[in-house]
Amino acid sequence: MMMMMMIETAPMVDLRPRDVDGLVDELQAYHVIYSPLFQRREQRYWSGEYLRGLFLEMPSKSVKPMVLTLHGADANAICAMQ
Questions:
Q1: Which H/E stretch holds residue 33?
Q2: Are the C-beta atoms of residues 53 and 34 closer than 8 Å to each other?
Q3: How many other β-carbons are positioned within 10 Å of the β-carbon of residue 34?
Q4: pLDDT tens digits for the chain (82 residues)?
Q5: How does pLDDT run across 27-46, given as a tens digit for each residue?
Q6: How many Å apart are CA 46 and CA 66, to the nearest integer?
Q7: How far apart are CA 26 and CA 49, in angstroms?
Q8: How far apart are CA 4 and CA 2, in angstroms?
Q9: Distance between CA 51 and CA 24 in Å, rounded?
Q10: Phi and psi at residue 47, in whole multiples of 5°?
């Protein structure tokens, strides 16, 4: 007889915009702490832009849609963030 295992799933998250208002400031503070670990200033800049892009209200959180939203159709920016 095979025993069925119960699989736990992640709890449902029901966040509203006001629930995460302070997260952007906290994320910026986090970036300030760790950005010196990037050797090049371009890496420091684009890592911050990537984190900023994660907070955009858009269905896809991949690099190209983020850059298009934040910087327009700039092929150099897309490559830089990647």
A1: helix 23-34
A2: no
A3: 10
A4: 566 677 778 788 787 878 777 888 888 899 999 999 999 999 999 999 998 898 888 888 899 999 999 998 888 888 888 8
A5: 889 999 999 999 999 999 99
A6: 11
A7: 15
A8: 6
A9: 9
A10: -65, -40
